[in-house]
Design brief:
Blueprint: H1 2-28, H2 36-54, H3 57-81, H4 86-104, E1 119-120, H5 130-135, E2 136-137, H6 139-157, H7 159-169, H8 171-176, H9 181-207, H10 219-229, H11 234-256, H12 263-286
Antiparallel strand pairs: 1-2
């Protein structure tokens, strides 16, 4: 029973993990992106459409990354180049993603594809309890594991990662040291958005291999909250995403068992815990326990440098 629940936790938490990792890259560079929900939907519809047309899951993942990358470039242009309001731009991106995917995905409702299949890692997949949950999964889940490590190594073991983190803390200092602030911020937003798109592709190519309108179902907003909960750290994001994945898995398990608890109350659980996480995270930040980038959400203009 526990092994089944743990397996469902990993699968339910993976799209949230991708979305959170992408948002962390955005915010480490100092740019708030509230368009995560829209980017996930764009990745989901692009990945499904490309896979259905080509028959290749790899092409579907690349298409999801590319389309979310392009959509993220719009947000980057507004917030980095034009120094527009990051909150408004992100919300507009979410509304754009919801509307655009509903329009272009209308003809794909009801279609199915052969999604990602499980690939067992010899030896490790036979471990008790954790074997099936972590080592008998599809390739996108394995990629998410590697991405967690790669992002941590990038930010804390490379010069480029240090420069990106400096953009979020004090872009004027980075500029003084010769770091191209706008170029790095633009790349952080677009690449992070592409990773969010892969999270959407996971929904339509692996978790539920079909297109369903608004299939992200609020996962993008959960990812926005998880960035704060994780302290802008990719390993902590892994824990947070699986925490919410476990809540979702338990909710579905309770419904399958025919519990007398209202289905509407069970569906509220992930979002209720999102509110709890935001409250706890905000209190931690007020006490100085958090690691929020100092210049997060603040546009940078070289002419204003002091």
């Amino acid at each position: 029973m526990f092994e089944i629940l743990l397996d469902a936790t990993v699968r339910a938490g993976t799209p949230i993990l991708f979305a959170t990792l992408g948002a962390i890259i955005n915010e480490r560079a100092g740019i708030i992106n509230l368009g995560i929900e829209g980017l996930m939907l764009i990745g989901a519809v692009a990945g499904f459409a490309a896979t259905h047309a080509s028959g290749s899951l790899l092409i579907g993942v690349i298409a999801a990354f590319a389309m979310a990358f392009i959509a993220g470039a719009i947000h980057a242009f507004i917030t980095v180049q034009l120094r527009g309001n990051q909150i408004v731009s992100g919300l507009a991106l979410t509304m754009f993603g919801i509307g655009m995917t509903a329009l272009f995905g209308r003809g794909m409702v009801g279609l199915t594809i052969d999604g990602f299949e499980r690939v067992a890692i010899p030896g490790l997949s036979e471990l008790p309890i954790v074997g099936k949950a972590f080592f008998n999964q599809d390739l996108l889940i394995y990629f998410s594991f590697l991405l967690v490590v790669a992002i941590w190594l990038f930010f804390y073991r490379t010069r480029w990662g240090l420069e990106v983190r400096t953009l979020g803390e004090n872009p004027a200092v980075a500029d003084t040291c010769g770091v191209p602030v706008n170029r790095y911020r633009f790349l952080a937003v677009t690449i992070g958005s592409g990773i969010v798109g892969i999270g959407g592709a996971y929904l339509s190519l692996a978790y539920t291999p079909m297109w369903i309108e608004n299939m992200s179902a609020g996962r993008g907003w959960i990812a926005v909250a998880l960035v704060i909960f994780a302290g802008w750290s990719s390993p902590k994001a892994l824990f947070g995403a699986y925490l919410f994945g476990g809540i979702t898995a338990m909710q579905l398990r309770f419904q399958a068992m025919g519990t007398t608890i209202s289905a509407h109350l069970l569906q509220m659980l992930p979002y209720f815990f999102t509110i709890v996480v935001l409250i706890i995270s905000t209190l931690r930040l007020q006490k100085g326990a958090g690691q929020q980038p100092e210049s997060l959400g603040l546009p940078y203009d070289r002419e204003d440098r002091k």
